[in-house]
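Chain A, query sequence.
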Amino acid sequence: MNGTLNLAIDAHDTRILAELQADARLSMAELGRRVHLSQPAVTERVRKLEGAGVISGYRASVDLGKLGYGIRALIRVGRADYNKVVKLVQQTPECVNAYNVTGDDSWVLEIAVQDVSHLDEVVSKFCLLTETATSIILNVAREHHPMLPPQPAAATSPKRRPVRAAAAGP
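Chain A, predicted structure.
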């Protein structure tokens, strides 16, 4: 996918995206009330956003700690065979997110484990492929932040006046 959007997103669509990212369980009637559109109009817009791939799915956010995963960590995986890493990620249910990245590392994995022993067990699997570095997540400052379309730069920005040099004294 090249990232090009074949759908013009207007202010109503932007408000729809904001509301659904805040609460994906909204009924179409309630969503319509919040964005000041009729239920059929908002339903049509949501379907278009889904069809264009802007809305790619709906999911519940769960508290991993309350499920018994007391530790979340990031594993940075060095250069390794792409397919081997993908296969191991798919075989590792503790892997919450996996990102193929640029830079010194080839992968950044987010995992959730029960305790330090469990952490060692999961990290050890990836150590068999290549070098790794692990960081335990202590606190989360932002997660699942809603994203809206970028706003175009102002067409007419105020022009700066040239700074004049101070006149030399007598």
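The chain has a mean pLDDT of 90. The first strand starts at residue 71 and ends at 77.
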